[in-house]
């Protein structure tokens, strides 16, 4: 005599833009529950109607706040009592009331991805810094206008070497930016709520 263990139920808040294949693959080990709500009121009604009953985990996409709003006390009160995990696809947790989740009995565990976009953010930051110093925008505009010979000559750019870069906030992105700016021989100073250890500030 054999018994079949039911798959755990999981859902997601907000539309999935880049990981639909990965989400679909979860169907091998979990029952995927899809919400059809297009706003917070409809989502709350779905919860009250029991559509998400039995769900143990939810994946919260970046765009979910536009659909369901913040995961606050009001939303937590209608989410199924079976919910144990919220996987937030963001570096911070400002869209989720973590304290309210922790106060649930049993508590809801909240995860985030604090370092996922550090490199990408800093790469764009360095691109903008170098672009401003080297007048990339003016050069690209001249190129599109057929003035690539430099007549009239574009304004001179500036070398990043030896320049001072100020960073407000030395979290993961700030420290990553410091490392990449120093590769261009820039001097880095920073302001942070708390002074970093000598090891973390590494000379800034």
Automatic annotation (TrEMBL):
Keyword field contains Zinc: no
Cellular component per GO, a single term: cytosol
A Pfam family the protein falls into: 2-Hacid_dh
UniProt cross-references to Gene3D superfamilies, sorted A to Z: NAD(P)-binding Rossmann-like Domain (3.40.50.720)
Keyword Oxidoreductase: yes
D-isomer specific 2-hydroxyacid dehydrogenase catalytic domain segment(s): 25-125
Keywords: Oxidoreductase
Domain D-isomer specific 2-hydroxyacid dehydrogenase NAD-binding: 127-199
GO MF term set: glyoxylate reductase (NADPH) activity; hydroxypyruvate reductase [NAD(P)H] activity; NAD binding
PANTHER family: 2-HYDROXYACID DEHYDROGENASE-RELATED, HYPOTHETICAL D-ISOMER SPECIFIC 2-HYDROXYACID DEHYDROGENASE (EUROFUNG)
Family per record: Belongs to the D-isomer specific 2-hydroxyacid dehydrogenase family.
Name assigned to this protein: Glyoxylate reductase
């Amino acid at each position: 005599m054999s018994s079949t263990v039911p798959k755990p139920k999981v859902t997601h808040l907000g539309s999935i833009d880049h990981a639909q294949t990965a989400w679909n693959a979860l169907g091998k080990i979990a029952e995927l529950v899809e919400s059809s709500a297009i706003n917070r009121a409809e989502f709350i009604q779905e919860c009250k109607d029991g559509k998400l009953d039995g769900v143990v985990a939810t994946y919260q996409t970046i765009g979910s706040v536009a659909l369901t709003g913040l995961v606050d006390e009001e939303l937590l009160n209608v989410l199924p009592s079976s919910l144990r995990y919220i996987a937030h696809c963001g570096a911070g947790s400002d869209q989720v009331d973590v304290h309210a989740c922790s106060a649930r009995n049993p508590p809801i565990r909240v995860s985030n991805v604090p370092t996922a976009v550090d490199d990408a953010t800093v790469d764009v930051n360095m691109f903008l810094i170098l672009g401003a110093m080297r007048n990339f925008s003016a050069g690209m505009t001249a190129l599109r206008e057929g003035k690539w010979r430099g007549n009239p000559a574009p304004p001179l750019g500036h070398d990043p070497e030896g320049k001072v870069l100020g960073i407000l906030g030395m979290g993961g992105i700030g420290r990553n930016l410091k490392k990449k700016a120093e590769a261009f021989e820039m001097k880095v100073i920073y302001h942070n709520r708390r002074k970093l250890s000598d090891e973390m500030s590494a000379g800034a």
